[in-house]
Amino acid sequence: MSTPQNSPSPSTASYKSAVTRSVSVRGEDFAYRELGPEDGVPLILLVHLAGVLDNWDPRVIDGLAARRRVITFDNRGVGASSGSTPDTIEAMARDAVLFIRALGFDQVDLFGLSMGGFVAQVIAAEEPHFVRKVILAGTGPAGGPGIDKVPALTIQATLKGVLTRQDPKLSLFFTDTAGGRKAGRDFLERLKERTHDRDKDIALPSFRAQLKAIKRWGRQAPSDLSAIRQPVLVANGENDRMVPSHNTLDLAARLPHSELIPLYPDAGHGGVFQQHEDFVPRALEFLES
Length: 289
Hints:
8 strands; alpha/beta; 10 helices
């Protein structure tokens, strides 16, 4: 592992202008961005299926980075990161740990969204002294009901999006109500705010590998969540189509030291984006308590 190439000090600038950097991890370059104050425990963000650096809501990133050092990254083989994408959640978790250690950190907080939440659970269980606190959003435990259906839902929504010229995230992340549709359109507009140095979309082989990993996670034996002893904040919308919301309630009930944000009404998989004005202060309070 090498040290970051031309690693800058984090800044409080907006995510839309954060510089994209890279660090070498076992011969592969991992792309990342960071912003926020330099002190304190870093908050590492683990993204959803097919997500790249530009799929994080800038309102969430900027809000968190106002008081925390925030780092987003592309896992191996995704977006601007090189290499071959793993087809298991466990391998993704190992890659994430190697990336974090390559940046020189010996303790971090994690924020995992959807598939990133699966990865965060594995890291928290396997690296108890490395992870201080965890935020899990729109996610569920291994073997959770309906999780193995995510690949089929995603492919259907993607094909429908091609036919209707509509971003599949509108139907996958938001409810089909007036409020949900408006929240989805607003979210997509925010994702366009960065106009330079944008990340590459996920390549088809990497997308297939992630779909395979998610299906495996959904069909695994239920996790022993009692192994995760860190404080965990759990959040979701009440109508998550992708990772059904009862998985969120199950997580909160089975994690020994969890705090559940009441499920956001008229919200789905992207509930923390839709309700960023409520979520960000709650997340900061949890991380700083």
